[in-house]
Specification:
mainly alpha; 13 helices
């Protein structure tokens, strides 16, 4: 009886995973199929086109500002990854290695901030950027992303820092090392999984986000990929769904490859962040 029950549990687990796989793969296959359909209408698109064509990919590159949007997004993503990782690393190191007044309250504040979605502060962000003359600039958007990454990234990286024995730093201090030497030569080299996790998530955020760029960036030449692709299907007179699908595939491809390449670091980074220290 117990063996039968165990088999039923295993079968139920497999059934859940199969359902999840189908619900995830089905829309992805439709997007790829739509991008390969020779026509422009969404209603006549097929999941598996009879005569697949890459003409929409060529149109996307030649007849739209996709390259410009991609360049803008790539610039924002790279700057955000660097700045966010630096800010999160220094903040996490301070909370992990130093004891100061307000430390616990600061950690709890960062934890609470994760519970609120970013769009709740859109009005405040808009006014702040307007007053500092950073509205409609990539720098303003980068600063918002970097500041927003501190709350979650600090807990992830701090959890990893807490697992590194303090004896390593104490031995370095006895040899004349400074706090800066300890941070850059001991802590960071041993924290590659958590650093990769924070950097990769910060890099991918601008590719996936639409709300903040739509609020901050107003000039067409400063648009990101999300804004540019949305403009293709935003109204009835401009509904190039097949070209939109081609753009979606080109955006998803590098992100998927990055996740696959850094998969082991991401797993270690997430599990390290679960350690409260």
């Amino acid at each position: 009886m117990s063996k039968l029950k165990s088999n039923l549990v295993v079968a139920a687990i497999y059934a859940v995973f199969i359902v999840l796989l189908i619900t995830t793969a089905y829309p992805l296959i439709w997007v790829v199929g739509t991008s390969l359909n020779p026509g422009n209408a969404l209603l006549v698109s097929k999941m598996f086109p009879d005569d697949p064509s890459f003409v929409h990919y060529a149109e996307l590159i030649r007849n739209t500002d996709f390259v410009l949007w991609f360049g803008n997004t790539l610039k924002i993503a790279a700057a955000n990854a660097i700045l966010s990782t630096v800010l999160v690393g220094m903040t996490a190191y301070a909370f992990s290695r130093f004891r100061f007044k307000g430390r616990q309250q600061g950690l709890m504040t960062l934890l609470v901030l994760q519970m609120f979605p970013g769009f709740l502060s859109i009005m405040a962000i808009f006014v702040l950027l307007l007053q500092t003359k950073l509205l409609d600039t990539h720098l303003g958007l980068i600063l918002i992303y970097a500041g927003g990454s501190i709350s979650m990234g600090t807990w992830v990286m701090k959890g990893h820092f807490d697992t590194i024995p303090r004896s390593l730093e104490e031995a370095a201090f006895m040899d004349g090392a400074t706090t800066r030497d300890s941070f850059f030569k001991i802590i960071l080299p041993l924290s590659l999984p958590s650093i990769t996790f924070v950097a990769l998530n910060s890099f991918i955020t601008p590719f996936m986000d639409f709300i903040l760029p739509q609020i901050v960036l107003r000039s067409p030449e400063k648009m990101t990929l999300a804004q540019g692709l949305y403009s293709m299907v935003a109204n009835e007179t401009n509904s190039s769904f097949t070209i939109f699908a081609a753009g979606a595939v080109l955006v998803a491809l590098p992100i998927t490859l990055l996740y696959m390449y850094f998969q082991k670091y991401l797993i270690h980074g997430m599990t390290a962040g679960a350690d409260k220290g």
